[in-house]
Amino acid sequence: MTDTWLIVGLGNPGPEYSHNRHNVGQMVLDELASRAGGGFKSHKARAQVLEGRLGIGGPRIVLAKPLSYMNVSGGPVSALAQFYGIDPAHVIAVHDEIDIPFDTVKLKLGGGEGGHNGLRDISKALATKDYLRVRVGVGRPPGRMDTADFVLRDFSAPEKKDLPFLIDTAADAVEVLVKDGLAAAQQKFHPAKAP
Questions:
Q1: Is position 23 annotated in a ligand binding site?
Q2: How far apart are CA 64 and CA 74, in angstroms?
Q3: Does domain 5-189 match CATH 3.40.50.1470?
Q4: What InterPro entries does the annotation carry (predicted)?
Q5: What does DSSP assign to residue 118?
Q6: What is the pLDDT of residue 114?
Q7: 3 state DSSP class of 183
Q8: What is the pLDDT of residues 44-82, one digit of tens each?
Q9: Domain residues of the chain, as ranges?
Q10: For residue 77, how many other CB atoms are within 10 A of its CB?
Q11: Cα separation of 123 and 162, whole Å?
């Protein structure tokens, strides 16, 4: 297996979804692509990809935005992992997370999918839950709003002001995760627990 990293931004294809909370993973990938100084190209695995390195002489990375809908992200992710010879331990899924507050980024390896159908499909396609996740907090739906309706809406006006900082932080978290490992990234990006 290769030491290349596959970094996948989850979301739905098409301009009508591009600013939804559900697409924050793809927004993070756009930030990583701009840092890498490249553009996405179509790949036969039904994804847009950008191959590059993380910094000068850094690890080889493949940034990928599946062109499938969120709930069927597994096919493109699995096909890309096979195409590039990347082990699931080197797959990073960047996704929206309602179980953590807006403006918070958390990282983990494996575990449950928390009702996230995109992650569930990836776990099924990779035949393991042991891949890395960068969880980008989008907050909980207000009142009794349906979760699906909430994540398929754009961020609120106050959130939009802070969104660039959240995207920047999540992109930084991906870079630290690849360069320094999970423990170092968690130590840096997880908020300290109050004593």
A1: no
A2: 12
A3: yes
A4: Pept_tRNA_hydro, Pept_tRNA_hydro_CS, Pept_tRNA_hydro_sf
A5: H
A6: 82
A7: helix
A8: 999 999 999 887 788 999 999 999 999 999 999 999 999
A9: 5-189
A10: 28
A11: 31
71 is in an annotated binding site: yes
Could you say which DSSP state residue 194 is in? P
The residue ranges of DSSP E strands in the chain, in sequence order, are 5-9, 41-43, 47-53, 60-66, 91-97, 105-109, 132-137
Q: Is the dihedral of CA 29, 33, 39, 45 positive or negative?
A: negative
Map residue 47 onto helix, strand or coil: strand
Stated pTM of the model: 0.95
Q: Is 20 annotated as a binding residue?
A: no
Q: Is 131 annotated as a binding residue?
A: no
pLDDT reading at 12 higher than 80:
yes
Q: According to the model, what pLDDT value does residue 163 have?
A: 97
Structure tokens at 10: 């989850």
Side by side, the strands of the sheet bearing 105-109 are 41-43, 47-53, 60-66, 5-9, 91-97, 132-137, 105-109
157-161 long-range contacts, CB within 8 A, separation 24+: 159/102
Name residue 30's amino acid: D
The model's pLDDT over 94-136, given as tens digits with 9 standing for 90+, comes to: 999 999 999 999 999 999 888 899 999 999 999 999 999 999 9
Q: What residues act catalytically?
A: 22
